[in-house]
Design brief:
Oligomer: heterotrimer
Order of helices and strands of chain A: EEEHEEHEHHHEHEHEE
Helix content of chain B: over 70%
Chains: A alpha/beta (229), B mainly alpha (266), C mainly alpha (231)
Distance between the termini of chain A: 42 Å
Radius of gyration of chain A: 17 Å
Structural class of chain B: mainly alpha
Number of strands of chain A: 10
Structural class of chain A: alpha/beta
Strand content of chain B: under 5%
Largest interface: A-C, 39 and 24 residues
Strand order of the largest sheet of chain A: 6-7-8-3-9-10
Shape of chain B: elongated
């Protein structure tokens, strides 16, 4: 398989994520029942909503993990129905699981992910430094890390992988106040450097500082809550 | 398990059609009758008109059932393989091929089970053993196991397309596995000529009326296969339709839920 | 990044995880050894053990394969790493080849241990007539059988991973599929050790079978793996 085309070959001027009346099913249950959403580059969009509303499904769909049952979805110009594989290289998902190899150290995990895209040792180290896992934690097996540290390691893997779109499912869960602030700062910085971030979170107030925009996901559909700057 | 709301008699034009009450049609009735007639012929010839074999005596009559069932099983698995390929490599990727593949595999597995059961009866009667590790029997047993695995994978769940893709790929892998198994077992059994008393795999020389009876048997079981396929694929189509209809209903319900929550929130 | 390089990365990663966790060395290898001992309890005659020893080696290997495959994929499903690899768009052929290579290395170690156990426990020995050729036969058998087993295991392991009942689905799919390897490898080893008068020259056709099997599942597996792990 040829390497994924870089985003420069995709329509990067337009919106990065476009969902139009998307239906996605889990088994036979329509987790997304006609969701529509548009996200521009550099935005941090908060997805709020009750449990079971479909936030996780929406994120997994954008990550190319679930097929589009009905409707259309486009990420970075790639159509999710026909070009799921091409989307994946540019998208990173941090879900309830962190995607780490728990027996390996932080450095080994980030190294692995970075090297799959040919990142240099410097890039990898920079990714770890940005997430604050470069010094003390670097050689600790991931199994021994706290939830927040695992979260940051996982983000470091995303950065090392050069993911353009970050899909984060409850990233603040399990973090203490400092951890959350650090995470927010990191996300803001990433968005500033051109990453597009979708965050699903229960916590409206906290995320209010972080997000450029909030939408609510209710029973499989998306409603706008207006811009928050 | 979703059910159709009997109160709903009005169909929107965009909705999929309501499943019929039964999978029977004129064609299946015709095939069914042909099958019954052919089976009656088989009984007449197999038990009546054809003579007992010189060596095997009356137990040769079992072969009139045993041989057709294994031939039909092979046919069924070939159909599974071909329709798996058609599903994967045609542009439309129509689920109809997936249903043909699945139904054929189910029927094939049933036929192999019958073959093995009837064959072991024949073996016991003729040669005193229920089973023998010769090439053909062993391959048949492995074929059986392979397609049971295939059926298990079909039941893993997920959307229809997921099930179809998974099964079709596995179907193609089975096509690759079967010759490998066949040749390795053949090599296994041909190297050391175990002194078997006689040919245990039913390759009895048949001619005249006996051959004709076998032929009738093949015809009868072919009709049976076609009849079963028609009914089973239609039943699967209806199951899928029911689930799709269930999806539409669920969509409507979920959207209503969303609207209600919106109104409640406002 | 070429598929081959990514595959090597993944294989290295799998082996590194094993080096850290030592699950195979501490649990799977002992399991294989205990299996060999159990065979002796069940087949209590020395002359029987002698004759069937090659088959027992491959039986024990096949059962251990199932456990190795389960382990290989449990590290992926533990924290969603396989999903993460799919999300990352890593070529599924690379994932297949990488994991199969790592599995093959672990299997090879296991088989060598089992050979050793057979020598010690069952009194097996290399053919006295033409021992060099017999050793060559043995080595080629080990390598070709291992490649075939690793390919089948990785393919079905990927399919079964993460599904309910995967522990039972994996054996159901794998055992019929590896029957040719069981047959061929046993016969080839019998030729190498001279069981029941087998000569080394008879063993080579079985190696041929094993090579065909390994190539078929190597290629078929890398093509099928992607669609099978996809949702």
């Amino acid at each position: 398989m040829s390497p994924a085309p870089s985003p420069s070959s995709a329509t990067v001027d337009g919106p990065v994520i476009v969902l139009d009346d998307v239906v996605a099913v889990l088994g036979q249950f329509p987790a997304l029942a006609g969701a529509s959403l548009t996200v521009e580059r550099g935005e941090i969009v908060l997805l709020s909503g009750p449990n079971g509303a479909g936030k996780t499904t929406l994120l997994r769909l954008c990550a190319g993990l679930l097929p589009v049952e009905r409707g259309t979805a486009t990420i970075l110009g790639f159509d999710l129905s026909t070009q799921r594989e091409l989307v994946r290289a540019h998208v990173g998902l941090l879900g309830h699981q962190n995607g780490l190899y728990l027996d390996l150290s932080v450095r080994e995990n980030v190294n692995f992910w970075g090297r799959t895209v040919g990142a240099s040792a410097d890039e990898i180290h920079a990714a770890m430094a940005r997430m604050g896992v470069a010094e003390r934690l670097a050689d600790i097996p991931c199994r021994k890390l706290s939830a927040g540290q695992k979260r940051r390691t996982s983000l470091a893997c995303l950065v090392a992988r050069r993911a353009q779109v970050w899909l984060l499912d409850e990233p603040h869960a399990g973090l203490d106040a400092t951890g959350r602030d650090e995470l927010d700062a990191t996300l803001a910085q990433a968005a500033g450097s051109g990453a597009t971030i979708l965050v699903a979170s229960h916590e409206l107030e906290r995320a209010g500082n972080l997000a450029t925009r909030s939408v609510e996901v209710v029973a499989g559909q998306v409603t706008a809550l207006g811009d928050k700057k | 398990m979703t059910t159709i709301d009997p109160a709903r008699t009005e169909l929107q034009p965009s909705e999929p059609p309501l499943p019929r009450r039964s999978t029977g049609t004129r064609v299946t009735r015709a095939v069914g009758i042909a099958c019954l007639v052919a089976m009656a012929w088989l009984v007449a010839f197999g038990l009546g008109f054809s003579p007992a074999d010189r060596d095997q005596k009356e137990s040769v009559r079992i072969l009139y059932v045993h041989v057709p069932t294994i031939w039909l099983a092979y046919l069924a698995f070939v159909v599974t393989a071909v329709s798996s390929g058609l599903y994967l490599f045609t542009k439309k990727q129509s689920l109809g091929w997936d249903r043909v593949a699945g139904a054929s595999a189910e029927i094939g597995v049933a036929f192999v089970a019958v073959t093995l059961a009837v064959g072991s009866m024949w073996g016991r009667l003729t040669w005193g053993v229920f089973w023998q590790w010769d090439a053909r029997l062993t391959t048949t047993a492995l074929l059986f196991a392979t397609y049971i695995g295939y059926l298990a994978v079909r039941r893993l769940g997920g959307s229809h397309q997921q099930r179809a893709k998974r099964s079709a790929v596995l179907g193609m892998i089975a096509v690759m596995e079967i010759p490998l198994v066949h040749f390795s077992v053949k090599m296994w059994r041909s190297l050391h000529q175990e002194a078997t008393v006689a040919n245990l795999d039913g390759d009895t020389k048949m001619d005249g009326i006996m051959l004709f009876s076998l032929f009738v048997g093949v015809i009868a079981f072919t009709f049976l296969y076609v009849w079963l396929m028609l009914h089973r694929t239609r039943a699967m189509a209806m199951e899928d339709m029911l689930e799709d209809r269930g999806l539409d209903d669920a969509l409507v319900a979920r959207r209503a839920e969303a609207a209600a929550q919106q109104n409640g929130a406002q | 990044m070429s598929t081959w390089r990514v595959a090597r990365l993944i294989a290295a990663k799998d082996l590194r995880v094993e080096r850290r966790s030592k699950i195979v060395t501490n649990q799977v290898l002992p399991f294989a050894g205990i299996t060999m001992v159990s065979f002796a309890f069940a087949l209590d005659k020395q002359n029987v053990l002698d004759t069937v020893a090659p088959g027992l080696i491959w039986l024990a290997t096949t059962f251990s394969l199932l456990i190795l495959v389960q382990r290989s994929f449990s590290i992926e499903t533990d924290d969603g790493a396989l999903d993460a690899m799919r999300v990352a768009g890593i070529d599924t052929r690379a994932i297949f080849l990488g994991k199969a290579m790592a599995l093959a290395v672990q299997l090879l170690v296991l088989e060598i241990l089992l050979l050793f156990a057979a020598v010690v426990l069952y009194g097996e020995a290399i053919q006295s007539s033409g021992p060099v050729l017999a050793v060559v036969l043995l080595v080629t058998t080990l390598i070709s059988a291992t490649c075939g087993l690793a390919a089948v295991g990785t393919l079905y392991g990927g399919l079964a991973a993460g599904f309910k009942g995967s522990e039972t689905l994996l054996p159901l799919l794998t055992l019929p599929a590896v029957a040719p390897v069981l047959i061929g490898a046993t016969k080839a080893v019998e030729s190498a050790v001279g069981t029941a008068g087998a000569v080394v020259s008879e063993g080579w056709q079985w190696v041929g079978l094993l090579v065909v099997f390994a190539v078929a599942f190597g290629i078929g597996g890398s093509l099928a793996f992607g669609p099978l792990i996809d949702e």
